[in-house]
Amino acid sequence: MTADLHCHTYCSDGSSSPEELVAYAKQVGLEAVAITDHDTLAGVSRAVAEGDRLGIMVIPGVEFSTMDMQRGIKVHLLCYLPTRPGILDALCKKILPSRDRSFRKSLEKVAENYPVSQEQVMLYAANSTCLYQVHIMRALIEMGYTDQIYGSLYRELLGDGGSYKISHTYLDVWETAACIRKAGGVCVMAHPSVYHSIETMKDMAAKGMLDGIEHHYPRMREEDTAIIEETIERYHLIPTGGTDFHGAYSSLPRPVGFCTTQDDALERIFALAASRSL
């Protein structure tokens, strides 16, 4: 079974509806696709319904935005197949209001120097669970100030160290991993190279807090490959693959299905999730 286990919809910071994403996955020949929006399960039920209609498996998931508080680095955790989603909804409610407030403050600062209105930007965020930076950038694109979501203007205004960047609250990575287990989900660390979370990855693996590690993804650094593979083998973790698909809202454009998960890894995810549902 060919599966892409890391995809976003417009329920967070992707550009596609849940139905469109599932249709894209079907068109490129995938047999399964995971919906892993940031800190929300809002698009899952719609995607599952569309998957049933089109004959493609949709794997419920979510990507949590967390922080290793001791190291001060961001860590993203993927959760698959939770059987008690109410536990995860409570986590989402902790982080989404803070993110929305911070990006609204960023928008206010942008609007002081660019002729964009909150109403205009919120049109692009209408289907999302909160405002994201991509929605602000989309408005700037429409007004002709840039032709890229993640180009030089983004870095200047909203990227790390940007003039209008305002931080928001993050979940604690250890507490989030524990909640994923309580919810019956399978916990996988997403793209360890992206936020330089290799040391956190090793610590969490050693303490039994990870079920898997995303091993095949577009922004993986070659110098991290060996330690990721070593950690997976040493602690018998599940190696997963995912495109981190965002549609048109991507810093590194790749079609859904560009990175996939192997059959045996997918079977291990299903088996582990089934054992936790008992």
What would CATH call the class of the largest domain? Alpha Beta
Helix content: 40-55%
Based on secondary structure, the structural category is: alpha/beta
Question: What value does the Rg take, in angstroms?
Answer: 18 Å
In whole angstroms, how far apart are the ends? 25 Å
- Total of domains: 2
Shape: globular
Could you please describe the fold and organization of this structure?
The protein is built from ten helices and eight strands. With 278 residues, the chain is an alpha/beta fold. Strands 1, 2, 3, 4, 5, 6, 7 and 8 form an eight-stranded mixed sheet that branches. Helix 1 (18-27) runs parallel beside helix 2, helix 4 packs across helix 5 (133-142) and helix 8 (198-206) runs parallel beside helix 9 (225-234). The protein is globular, with a radius of gyration of 18 Å. The relative contact order is 0.17. The mean pLDDT is 97.
Attribute tags:
278 residues; alpha/beta; TIM Barrel; 2 domains; 10 helices; 8 strands
Question: How are the SSEs placed, and which strands pair?
Answer:
Layout: E1 3-4, H1 18-27, E2 32-35, H2 44-54, E3 57-68, E4 73-80, H3 85-113, H4 118-124, H5 133-142, H6 152-157, E5 171-172, H7 173-182, E6 186-189, H8 198-206, E7 212-216, H9 225-234, E8 238-241, H10 263-276
Parallel strand pairs: 1-2, 2-3, 3-5, 6-7, 7-8
Antiparallel strand pairs: 3-4, 4-6
